[in-house]
Design a protein that fits this description.
The chain is mainly alpha-helical. The chain is built from three helices and no strands. The protein has one domain (about 10-65).
Amino acid sequence: MAIGIVGGAGVTAIAAQPNMKSALDHLVAADTFLARATDNKGGHKAKARSLISLAIKEVRAGMRYAN
């Protein structure tokens, strides 16, 4: 997972947004758990992973916007 930390500037930005950082961490963890699950979910696992991917992108965009 790359958050785009350049020259330490990103560290301060992320630290200033602990709730967004926590949400991002939880989304990444959820995707990891889903990736390990069996595929016999009628397409729902794949859909969930797709939505999590979108959510991760939106959280990152929100973090960039706030800076």
